[in-house]
Design the sequence.
């Protein structure tokens, strides 16, 4: 099988994500109003939040079984789940995705609910670089330097497309009752509160003992120890790691780009890379311009 990245609905994705599976999700899988999609750009807190959801729903099963990745269409992938097995999952069904707010995860058209988790941009792109270099999770042929990778990220040449458009596509729906917005930093800094928010959104009753159990189970060291076969996927799990590799010029470039996006989301004065607001104008794939500069969508 050709293991090169492919384009699916304009989005560059890994080989195991197929257009036929996305079509199946749109045409054959009936969304339920109890469904919850965990949506992130890679390296933004996916594994941590997936772990919280898995522990909320079924502490005895793996996070991949409890919160599967339905977009995987290659049957030999360890992430694959059949449509029949998707249908058999009991409510609330929870899924993970890295998709933009479109197709099968359109928060306006779908009856489902969505948890969107974002991360401080410099830390996210740093972590993404190391994932790209990883022979298991990343691109086995990728040998470029950090500076080359950063430039590719800024011009949206990497897998999963433009981070800036991904962020915009989800955050422009801020205020919708079917989307819970979280940041990786707030989950790490106060996990008990994050667990309660997620439980309430999903519709799972928890006691303080449950909150404590889930918090301890989802600490970085605990999750890494519980999944030795996925040790390559757990790297640092900390805030501020970008300082080891990122220059001031790169930080400034990234911050400037994010501020352009957030200006369209009516957060012109926000200094972080994780806040969002209600958009005052629409940005689409056909018109990917912010402050005169392209977002390089998808």
Sequence:
């Amino acid at each position: 099988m050709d293991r090169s990245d492919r384009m699916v609905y304009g989005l560059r994705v890994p080989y195991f994500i197929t257009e036929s599976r996305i079509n199946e999700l749109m045409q054959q899988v009936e969304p339920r109003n109890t469904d919850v999609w965990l949506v992130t750009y890679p390296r933004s807190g996916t594994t941590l939040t997936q772990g919280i959801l898995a522990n909320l729903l079924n502490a005895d099963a793996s996070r991949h079984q409890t919160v599967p990745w339905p977009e995987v269409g290659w049957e030999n992938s360890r992430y694959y789940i059949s449509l029949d097995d998707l249908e058999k999952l009991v409510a609330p069904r929870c899924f993970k995705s890295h998709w933009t707010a479109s197709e099968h995860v359109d928060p306006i058209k779908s009856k489902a609910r969505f948890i969107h988790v974002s991360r401080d941009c410099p830390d996210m792109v740093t972590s993404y670089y190391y994932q790209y270099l990883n022979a298991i999770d990343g691109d086995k042929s990728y040998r470029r330097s950090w500076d080359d990778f950063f430039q590719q990220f800024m011009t949206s040449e990497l897998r999963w497309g433009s981070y800036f458009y991904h962020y915009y596509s989800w955050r422009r729906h801020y205020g919708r009752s079917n989307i819970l917005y979280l940041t990786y930093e707030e989950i790490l800094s106060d996990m008990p509160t994050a667990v309660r928010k997620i439980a309430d959104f999903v519709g799972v009753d928890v006691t303080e003992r449950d909150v404590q159990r889930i918090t301890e189970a989802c600490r970085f060291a605990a999750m890494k120890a519980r999944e030795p076969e996925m040790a390559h996927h757990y790297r640092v799990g900390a805030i501020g790691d970008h300082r080891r590799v990122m220059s001031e010029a790169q930080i400034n470039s990234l911050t400037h780009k994010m501020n352009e996006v957030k200006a369209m989301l009516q957060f012109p004065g926000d200094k972080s890379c994780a806040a969002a607001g209600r958009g005052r104008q629409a940005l689409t794939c056909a018109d990917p311009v912010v402050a005169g500069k392209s977002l390089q969508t998808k």
